[in-house]
Specification:
The chain is mainly α and 119 residues long. Helix content is 63%, strand content 5%.
C-alpha cells in the first residue's frame, strides 16, 4: 500500500496554511453562521467540534479575534495531519512516497498489479 505526503514537514505546513487560507477565504465563517441560523444544532453536536469549525465558532461568539481564530485553526489542522501520518505509518506494507517524486510515483503505479487488472 502506498501513501503520498511531503517528507519535508515545512512543505506540508505551507500546504496546510494555504488550504486554511482558502477555506477561510471561501467563506468558512459565513457557512457556519448560515448553519447555526438555519438549523437547530445543539452546542455539543460533533459537527461543531470539527477542526476549523470549532475555532470559527469561537471567533463568531467573540471568544477569539480573527488572528487567534486563524492560529488556533492552523495549529489544530497541523496536529491532525501529524496524527494522520503517525497512524498511516503503522499500516502493514505501507510504501511512502514524497508527493514531489512524480516519476517514482508514476513508475510504481504503472507496475502495480491491482492497477494493471483494471486496464
Amino acid at each position: 500500500m502506498e501513501y503520498f505526503f511531503p517528507k519535508n514537514r515545512k512543505l506540508l505546513h505551507e500546504r496546510i496554511e494555504q488550504r486554511l487560507e482558502k477555506i477561510i477565504g471561501d467563506g468558512l465563517v459565513e457557512e457556519i453562521k448560515n448553519i447555526i441560523n438555519t438549523y437547530a444544532i445543539k452546542d455539543d453536536h460533533p459537527a461543531l467540534r470539527a477542526i476549523n469549525y470549532k475555532q470559527a465558532l469561537s471567533f463568531i461568539s467573540g471568544e477569539y479575534d480573527h488572528e487567534t481564530f486563524y492560529l488556533k485553526a492552523l495549529y489544530a489542522t497541523r496536529q491532525f495531519a501529524k496524527r494522520q501520518i503517525t497512524w498511516m505509518r503503522s499500516w502493514e506494507n505501507l510504501e511512502l512516497f514524497d508527493i514531489n517524486e512524480e516519476q517514482k510515483i508514476l513508475k510504481k503505479i504503472k507496475n502495480t498489479k491491482e492497477i494493471k487488472s483494471f486496464v
